[in-house]
Input
Amino acid sequence: MKRFRIYIDESGDHTYHHLDSLASRYLSLTGVVIESELYRTQLQPEFERLKQSHFPHSPDEPVILHRKELINREGIFGALRDADRDQAFTADLVRFLSAQDYAIYTVVIDKKAHTDRYGKAASHPYHYCLTVLLERYRGFLTAEGGRGDVMAESRGGTEDMELKKVYQELYEDGTQFLSAQSFQGVLTSRELKLKKKIANIAGLQMADLLAYPIKQDILAKDGISGVSQGDFGEKLCSSVQSKQNTYSRKLLK
Output
């Protein structure tokens, strides 16, 4: 039986503040699903080679690919101010993302529409998105005849505890649409795994790189005006959209 892991990162924040602002109105969670043996033997080593070829570094002090730092050319990524190096890195990253075997699931919530509809009964945006995302992951595992676990980026003490509680409740009680047994039959752990970016986990870095451009792509295709991915985001998004039957999206209201 194949084993999988979904690596999750967010774009946006979980609060209901400043909802008239396009930058604050939408929250997304993106999950990158990778088969564990393939991850160990191919994807993770190739990801490290990609980073090492463009940003030579000591393995004891690994380079972490973080979208905001890449865009802002911070730290070691200042090398990308050179147009030729920037073009070469982006081309290699796009080739890597296009060549690997993985699935992507993204859930976006319109927080303004959600709170307008439900008022004080509105769900916690991050927790709602996580639940919907894991429903889709359960469907993937069932279709593949596999089992898997879940890893998300750590967001801090209190938030991590709340997120683990949401996951545990889903595992023990199910959701409005799926039974606990349907989750327990495919999930290998009753606990959510949380890791910080500095842990140098390839799957979390991929989710970080893809979360924002995929969110923007979903909003643009839903007719939201004023949405832009940027050139870097457009290239990354194109690299994953070319993968047939591996890219699923959902806009929640």
Notes: The first helix runs from residue 22 to 25. Residues 3-36+102-200+210-252 form one domain. The chain has a mean pLDDT of 90. The chain is about 50% helix and 15% strand.
